[in-house]
Design goal:
Strand order of the largest sheet: 1-2-3-4-5-7-9-12
Number of strands: 12
Low-confidence stretches: 5-28, 106-145, 170-180
Structural class: alpha/beta
Distance between the termini: 11 Å
Largest sheet: 8 strands, mixed
Helix content: 40-55%
Radius of gyration: 20 Å
Oligomer: single chain
Shape: globular
Strand content: 5-15%
């Protein structure tokens, strides 16, 4: 069995103790990442199948630069290789922001000024203070350098492929000798505060999204004469429909957590500061289910959605058949007959 601890040892790192979070009943371990701004934590005891990726780049409001991008890649790969991981939560350690988007190191003051001014447009409709979100864009301007067009393209392509890692790629699912090309377990985005551009695209790549009431979500790229390039033009319409997606992308309009739920972009909107609690509740429920069944359900839904109904039903049959002779299926039947909780092992 490959675990996060063995992956850490193979990468020359180790688990270290992590201070108790505000949920004191949960003990966590921290896997030190190659990135300074991405931490991989796993819960323990009865929640040992739950892992968290924490974004921690407060100076730039979690804007995704190369260092954070590499940290995300390494974290997703480590989780994918861990057979004991059952569900992932992606959250921010920075107050009032999930992720400010891709750190493309814009090179002109005019473009920065325009981006800042856009934050004043219709911001009152979100009920959120302007200055809180002004700081999301206007960060560490003096430290920024210009990216060339080819560098931007390379960065965005890597960003797109990294986010796609959160989805199922079935061809390696039954071949453990292959390097995993996707994360087969469910992923949950925990969105408190701002999720702009690439930050929202990362959330869209997850299976579920939980928002706090202070969440502000936006695709502002067209205001900078570009389009969402990390999957936003494709995943957003699949969630909210083409017409709504076009309006959000064409205008860059900001929406709050409640609006996100009403249009199908988010699963839940909870009081500010409670998104992690709700996400944890959902993760715990998933963690109690049969791990193989959850992974194959994700595959059946994701891949089946992209093909015609007849092909999708054939895929469902294939996934169902893979579960018939598993130990977990027999355990589920036995637990039901004996009126006890099942103890699934992922086999």
């Amino acid at each position: 069995m490959v675990t996060l601890s063995s992956v850490a040892r193979s990468m020359g790192r180790r688990f270290v103790g992590y201070p108790k979070p505000y949920l004191s009943q949960f003990r966590t371990l921290l896997l030190q990442s190659t990135s300074q701004c991405v931490n991989l934590r796993r819960l323990s005891n009865s929640d040992s199948g739950i892992v968290e990726v924490n974004l921690d780049r407060p100076g730039v409001k979690n804007a995704i630069g190369w260092d954070m991008l590499r940290g995300l890649q390494h974290s997703f790969e480590a989780i994918s290789r861990d057979s004991s991981a059952n569900v992932l939560m992606i959250r921010s350690s920075v107050p009032k922001v999930f992720c400010a988007g891709a750190d493309l190191k814009v090179g002109t003051g005019k473009m920065l000024s325009y981006a800042c001014n856009q934050l004043f447009v219709s911001i009152e409709s979100t009920g959120t203070r302007v200055l809180d979100h002004l700081s999301v864009i206007c960060f560490d301007w003096q430290e920024r350098k210009t990216m060339s067009s080819s560098e931007v393209q390379d960065f965005v392509n890597t960003l797109r492929s990294t986010f796609s890692y959160l989805e199922v790629c079935h061809k390696h699912l039954t071949n453990p000798q292959k390097i995993p090309q996707a994360l087969h377990i469910p992923s949950i985005a925990v969105v408190e505060g701002a999720a702009f551009g690439g930050g929202l695209e990362m959330a869209l790549s997850c299976d579920l999204r939980i928002c706090g009431e202070d969440a502000v979500l936006s695709m502002p790229e067209t205001g900078l004469a570009i389009i969402p390039g990390a999957g936003g033009t494709q995943r957003l319409p699949r969630l909210v429909g083409r017409s709504v997606a076009k309006e959000l992308i064409f205008t860059g309009r900001k929406i709050c957590g409640r609006d996100a739920v009403s249009m199908g972009l988010a699963n839940y909107c909870v009081p500010s500061g409670e998104a992690h609690l709700k996400a944890l509740e959902i993760a715990q429920s998933i963690n109690q289910k049969g791990p193989l069944a959850i992974r194959l359900a994700k595959r059946a839904i994701n891949e089946g959605f992209e093909v015609d109904l007849a092909s999708a039903l054939a895929l469902e049959e294939e996934c169902y058949e893979q579960l018939l002779n598993t130990k977990d299926r027999l355990e589920g039947l036995a637990a039901f007959a004996e009126k006890r909780k099942p103890k699934y092992v992922g086999e």
